[in-house]
Amino acid sequence: MRRTVTGVALLVAAAALLTGCGSDGGNADGKAKASPGADGGKPSAAQSPSAVPTASAGGKGGATHEVTLEVEGQGRTQVMYHADSSGFEQQTLPWQKTETVELTAAEQKVGYLVNVVPGSVNSADGSLQQAPCTIKVDGRKVADNEGGKNPKGCSYLIK
């Protein structure tokens, strides 16, 4: 009987901890995050940020940059990415995600890493290779994986 009660108490405690650690889909300030929708994460015209770096009047107080992550190819593959948000999702190719990243003063000194790591696609000869990826910051191409030849994906340190 004592084992049963202890086991039930442990299950209830574990469930409470897991529930408390879950995400409600909001930010730290309590505002709900925008969902990427059916467009694969592409912002609408109303959501499209400016491509000009600016000093922010509030928030982190740093420079902002428009970051565009792109994966080329055909079909579907897994895509892992990190810019302002992070994700690891099955995507239909070609895929693109544009986000505005605001850097703190410390991040402007040491840098802020953005990356995208695409999964495999069929190459022209029928073998599997990593899908081609690129990163653009403020409209300028800053990284690529040499058409899928570099298996590390694409990464760039924004300063």
What does this entry look like structurally?
- The protein has 159 residues and is of the alpha+beta class.
- It is 16% helix and 40% strand.
- The protein is built from 2 helices and 8 strands.
- The protein has helices at 2-20, 105-110, and strands spanning 64-82, 86-102, 112-118, 120-122, 128-130, 133-137, 140-144, 154-158.
- A hairpin with a 3-residue loop joins strand 1 (64-82) and strand 2.
- The relative contact order is 0.16.
Summarize the structure.
This protein is about 15% helix and about 40% strand. By secondary structure, it is an alpha+beta fold.
* Average predicted confidence as pLDDT: 76
Quickly give the structural class: alpha+beta
Please provide the count of β strands.
Answer: 8
Strand content: 35-45%
Rg over CA atoms, rounded to whole Å, is 20 Å
Largest sheet: 6 strands, antiparallel
Outline:
elongated
Q: Termini, distance in Å?
A: 61 Å
Count of alpha and pi helical runs: 2
Low-confidence stretches: 15-58
The ordered string of helix (H) and strand (E) elements is HEEHEEEEEE
- Can you give the helix content as a percent range? 10-25%
